[in-house]
Design brief:
alpha+beta; 4-stranded mixed beta sheet; 4 strands; globular
């Protein structure tokens, strides 16, 4: 009976370890883009988000270093757009 109880704790522990390892692996494949990254989008929502941040970006020194459709915005917005599949990197 005790072996069955200990087995119930081992399985969830293995599942948690697997989730942590796979989470780390995903982060390495999808890093936030570096400063200066330029993208084009097909999404009006991401375009509006970038426009909404324009005034804040003008006040934040060094905080908005990526470009979405010619609009200066945060690299986090660019990352979210790329990750969702609504943006493509601009060559050059």
């Amino acid at each position: 009976m005790k072996q069955t109880k200990s087995g119930l704790f081992v399985l969830p522990a293995l599942l948690l370890c697997t989730l942590f390892v796979s989470g780390c692996e995903t982060k390495d494949r999808n890093p936030i883009p570096p400063a200066g990254t330029r993208v084009n989008t097909t999404s009006e929502v991401f375009r509006q988000t970038a426009r909404g941040l324009e005034q804040d970006c003008a006040r934040i020194v060094g905080g908005c270093t990526c470009i979405l459709d010619g609009i200066q915005t945060t690299c986090s917005v660019v990352f979210a757009c790329l990750d969702a599949g609504f943006c493509q990197l601009v060559a050059g």
